[in-house]
Sequence to fold (993 residues):
Amino acid sequence: MRWRIALTIFRKELLETVRDRRTLVVMLILPAVLYPLLLIGFTQVASHQVSQLYAMEGLVAVVGEIPETLTEVLAVDAEKPAADQLNLKLLQLEQSPQAPETLGHDAEDPEIDAVTDWAHDVLKNAQAHVILVIAGDSEERLEREDTSSIVILYDNTIDESRAVNDRLFTLLQSYRKTVVLERLAKHPDLSEGFFFPLRIFDENIAPSYKRGGYLAGRVLPMILIMMVLLGAFYPAVDLTAGEKERGTMQTLLTAPAQPLEIVFGKFMTVFCVSMASAMANLVSMAAAFAWVARDLPGESEIAFRIDAGTIGMVFLQLIPIALLFAALMMAVAVFARSYKEAQNYLTPVYMLIIIPVTMGALPGVKLVGFTAGVPVLNIVLLMRDLMTEPPRPEMMTLVLIANVGYSVLALVVAVRIFTTEQILLGGNGGLGDIFRMRPTLGGVRRATPMLSISVFCIALVVLLYLGTMVQEVNLIWGMVVTQWGLLLAPALVLAMALKLDVRETFMLRMPSMWGWVAAIILGLTSWAVLGTFTSWLQNLVLPAPAAFEQMMEKALGLTDADYPDPLLLLVFSLSPGICEEFLFRGLIMAGLRPVLKRWSTILLVSLMFGIFHISIYRILPAMIVGIVVTLVAYQTRSIWTGVLLHVINNATLLMVSRHSMLKQGPADVPQVDNPSFFLPVPWQGTEVRWPVMSIYIVLFAAGLIVLMMSTRDQPEDLDIAAVPAESP
Amino acid sequence: MTETKESDILLEAVGLRKEYPRVVALDHLDLAVRAGEVVGLLGPNGAGKTTALRMFASILTPTSGRAAVCGFDTSTDALKAKQQLGFLSGDTALYKRMSPRETLRYFGRLHDMEDVLIESRSAALIERLDMGDFADRYCETLSTGQQQKANIARTLVHDPPVLILDEPTVSLDIVTGSFILEAIRRARAEGKAVLFSTHIMSEAEYLCDRIVVIHKGRVCAAGTCDELRARTGAVSLAEAFLQLVGETVDIDTSSDNPEISCVGE
Fold:
């Protein structure tokens, strides 16, 4: 690459971008106006609402007799200065139901249910804000110095109801204290401390910047990331699809500049605009917050740390993420032939990025080793930390390294795409071809990538809703119905309805003898090798909670001695072995094989297979097993090796776990001292028994070698070669 | 026609072929253009003209065969080949928010020219093409004719020995169209090799020293205008062309451009 040329392109692209008023508006003017307006407007509206809420008279519908003492307490409250008043009014509505004669220890009391329906109506019709239920025996209980229960019914989703509930609660506390003091008067031998043994204070000691940072840390990173994304969006589309649409792409391609120089020049432009946009947003946001904080009295919740140092660190961390977005957006947008098409292609990318952004706002999601490796999520969490915690250099480094890695990867992909001639010229071979649903190619009806992706999405949704529903009715037979009825049958029907070449789609050909041998060896050893490896990896990355493991054990019938082995084998080994294979290594892989390289196909199919297991704790194990199964089916060009491997793997894993568990007995019985010799890891232990394990590893490797040796003569792109080229 | 020698060949194709997954766009094209010669590539829509020209310009890579500009292979030595080349087509638009002068500077730099040279060369082209009035206005504000002048200047800024023009007059009015044809004649006089594609027969008759007719990706005839007419016994090139491609095809045989059509060789 000649830097002089790349810089020439960069300078020109930047100049032209800056001259575009749309970019300037999005980049600078929008953030400059947006934050002050949003924040100041929002604060004013919010404080107006809050003051309205306080000024409002709280209406309390009372069910039952209003105790005299309560009325007195209320009267005392009414004499306080207006600002300190609870401002409540007790009502007795006309159609008020009969109060329960007595109430138990909690609000779950069945007697309350009768009142609840009526209470819903009262709240809905705004006749009162909360309902206070006082049992019929209340007065009498208090008289004989017993405990009486009072229940407040309110609706947490109605702001007024929530606010009045808080006020009523305060009032009832005064009421309770009054009652206690009355009792004390009758018992001179008892001190006040007898009734109030503890005074509990809780004080939020978080410094104000941290409190503010906690709030801001949840909102600001999201907005910033979205703005970096938006900042990259316009130039990325403009410099790729926009250039094609305007016809300047070809002009540029006739000049003696290498694709790498062109990509680099454009990429740097998108990156700079995106960073400038982020910076403008950051500065405007900080200024607006400072302005609002200035207006608020004393120790404000909004005061938060967004000083020069924080801005600097956030800026530094934004660099790799802007690089990543720039490369990603350009790599996708370059497929499009027009502005509009590019916007269509980028919408899913946008949505994909929003997922980790919103995940960052979930409670309990923290910046740890694992989350530091998740792109976008890591930066959201890191920014949140920077606003509340002292900086953690090791995490900052980790996030930086991870994001630099991702951005380099995205850039490499972008360069590869850019150097594909048809894509740059906007002719054939763009994304449009991949999105075609009509599965015809060279006279043979074939599945397309779009079909594969659609089938996967539909199967996922079906599994999620219908599958769960039937499995709730009966776990074991629900599984069978899901596998055969909801996954296999629709896949076969769809293939026939689309008149696909069934033999080719489902790879219904017999493998060679060595193919069979490889599948059997791998099937018999994968549970030990991959099972140990994946559980080690899973513990490292995202350890599954014990509750999840127990749920899985129960779901698989592992600990239930009543289930006969053959039944479990049918349900969890044979059924998935056949049905999932036809779906994944059959229909889904068929659409991807012709357009992707071998390993891209295998990894994508396995990833889908992992996701299909609908649990964040099962994606990784299922995906890793999926890679081996997909590899075997792909190499042998036969679904049957995949089926065999899948069945054997599930069967061995199931039987080994089940029998180890049954032998071990309930948790409180001491562990069996003498675990079976063939277990590579003692059951529920962690120490790997390497002599045993190495035998499995050697056999597993032998299986892979047999597989690759027996299929090495296969042309890699058999599927494409099999299709005759159409004449013009 | 200027006298030429074998050693003057500036643009050459040998067995040039381009395949797409479902189409063979161009098959076995042999072609040579010498210095001071204008060769016309004629063919109906979709004949493979643009594919051929894009391979000469290193925008597309040939599936087999080779193309060379001034002896530089267009796929293995693409940068050097592009340095020797000026490419203009109906699709090569200009940057809207840059002035013609900035455009010339940009492309001059992409051709790795010294800034001093770029400035003097731009000034000369602006003067010669009478662009002084609009050389510093954004291209988006220019008329089609002005844009096309700027585009020609862009093609010539690095003074390339070879010009490739892909239907350069398409969608232009008579005045601008003839302006371009004049530019081509001038380039020939300066000793440049010009390969240009068109489906306007009158243009080809007016300009070309030799004509190569391609149809469905294959060369179906080659020779001077007179040779083609003589071979087919046709009166006009348009008639000859129709006979050569052997079917009714979508070509522009109209003579609505009298200034051009009345001028013969």
